[in-house]
């Protein structure tokens, strides 16, 4: 049940061009005195209300019935922030929230057992990464208390460096949560959720090379595509994801380490952000090469975008480590996809639809990966060919409009 309490957020004018608006200041999107917000006709206030409601009522992940190694994720946070960034009004945000509640069969957040505290948090990181919902409530409780005591920035500076090695866990979901909250909404509770998600799903694929050696990421994809030493997996990669992943780690991690990213340990914030942009550029080109339908590659592009948001929180060595681990996770996913050719297809000179038409069509669809695709391609943080990005959004929209689904 929701408590009716006053909202204290700064109003952001509805109907804004969200791509030109300044992002909210940190800690702006938070409940007053730890209390819930009321629903609001203002888009940003409604976003904050729904994000907090979701965090209080639902867990971030849950085990799929009959498949203890498979977990499902609550995508409300990613979708609502993306929709808001694209200019959704309060009614659209609320409709999207209700869709997720019904469509994703969300599970209630379990009570914390209080097992994570100042003396145990490091030792507890990544104890159950395949089934992270075991530890998530305890980590969430811990980080909420840390933020209440020390503030968002101090909590992130203290804890995030210990988590960068495991960002690959559960397809970068925790890192996405953290990047959206820190860089876009200023939602302190989302920060706690992101840290808890990263801590409970923490799973480094394998040791990195002692020194990375690669700089051109698109060339790495091309080299891996031709590398006959790497396996070709048979069967449904979604169903057998963990067995394929374990095979890569056990039998091919030395080969995979040959493709590690060359990042200096003293990398500056600006240089690190450029690497993150290059990572997103290479990944979006792979998305196009793969046929504009891989949700795995889209996750990688999204993760690179959120790494960009986190660079100023970390010391240089941790920045370098996060970039290298991010790239490692992308490469493991690429290997699990059997390394499709990264050669770009022949593209038309322009997309079939204008951006206004794409945005209008996007809001008619409930598919949250589509919303992310449209936002990232329109934003084009990485500076990829804008025609390619518009075509990617157009093709993704056409896929969902036609009743199609994303492929691995």
* CA gyration radius, whole angstroms: 20 Å
Number of domains: 3
What's the N-to-C terminus distance?
A: 38 Å
Helix/strand order, N-terminal first: HEEHHHHHHHHHHHHHHH
Q: pLDDT below 50 for ≥5 consecutive residues: which ranges? A: 1-27
Average predicted confidence as pLDDT: 88
Walk across the major sheet and give the strand order: 1-2
Helix content: 40-55%
Approximately how much beta-strand content do the residues carry?
A: under 5%
Number of strands: 2
Largest sheet: 2 strands, antiparallel
Which structural class do the helices and strands define?
mainly alpha
User: Any idea what the shape is?
Assistant: globular
How many helices? The count is: 16
Kindly describe this structure.
- By secondary structure, the protein is mostly helical.
- The chain folds into three domains: 39-200, no CATH class; 217-336, no CATH class; 355-401, no CATH class.
- 52% of the residues lie in helices and 3% in strands.
- It contains 16 helices and two strands.
- The chain has a two-stranded antiparallel sheet.
- Helix 5 (136-150) packs across helix 8, helix 12 packs across helix 15 (368-379) and helix 15 runs antiparallel to helix 16.
- The model is unreliable at 1-27 (pLDDT under 50).
């Amino acid at each position: 049940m929701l408590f009716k309490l006053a909202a204290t957020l700064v109003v952001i004018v509805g109907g804004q061009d969200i791509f030109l608006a300044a992002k909210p200041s940190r800690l702006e999107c938070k409940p007053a005195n730890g209390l819930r917000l009321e629903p609001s006709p203002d888009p940003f206030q409604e976003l904050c209300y729904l994000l907090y409601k979701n965090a209080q009522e639902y867990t971030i992940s849950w085990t799929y019935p009959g498949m203890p190694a498979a977990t499902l994720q609550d995508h409300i946070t990613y979708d609502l922030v993306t929709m808001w960034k694209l200019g959704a009004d309060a009614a659209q945000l609320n409709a999207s929230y209700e869709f997720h509640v019904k469509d994703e069969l969300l599970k209630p957040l379990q009570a914390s057992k209080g097992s994570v505290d100042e003396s145990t948090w490091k030792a507890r990181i990544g104890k159950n990464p395949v089934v992270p919902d075991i530890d998530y409530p305890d980590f969430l409780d811990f980080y909420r208390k840390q933020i209440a005591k020390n503030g968002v920035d101090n909590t992130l500076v203290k804890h995030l460096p210990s988590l960068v090695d495991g960002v690959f866990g559960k397809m970068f979901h925790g890192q996405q949560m953290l990047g959206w909250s820190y860089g876009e909404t200023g939602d302190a509770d989302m920060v706690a959720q992101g840290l808890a998600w990263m801590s409970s799903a923490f799973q480094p694929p394998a040791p990195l090379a002692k020194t990375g050696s690669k700089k051109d990421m698109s060339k790495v994809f091309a080299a891996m595509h031709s590398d006959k030493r790497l396996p070709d997996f048979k069967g449904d990669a979604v169903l057998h994801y963990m067995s394929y992943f374990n095979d890569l780690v056990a039998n091919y991690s030395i080969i995979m380490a040959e493709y590690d990213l060359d990042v200096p340990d003293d990398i500056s914030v600006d240089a690190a952000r450029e690497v993150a942009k290059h990572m997103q550029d290479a990944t979006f080109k792979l998305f196009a090469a793969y046929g504009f339908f891989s949700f795995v590659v889209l996750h990688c592009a999204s993760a690179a975008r959120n790494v960009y948001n986190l660079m100023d929180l970390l010391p240089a060595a941790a920045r370098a480590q996060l970039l290298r681990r991010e790239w490692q996770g992308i490469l493991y996913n690429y290997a699990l996809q059997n390394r499709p050719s990264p050669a770009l297809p022949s593209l038309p000179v322009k997309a079939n639809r204008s951006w206004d038409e794409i945005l209008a069509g996007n809001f008619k669809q409930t598919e949250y990966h589509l919303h992310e695709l449209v936002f990232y391609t329109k934003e084009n943080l990485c500076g990829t060919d804008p025609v390619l990005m518009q075509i990617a959004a157009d093709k993704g929209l056409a896929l969902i409009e036609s009743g199609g689904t994303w492929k691995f």
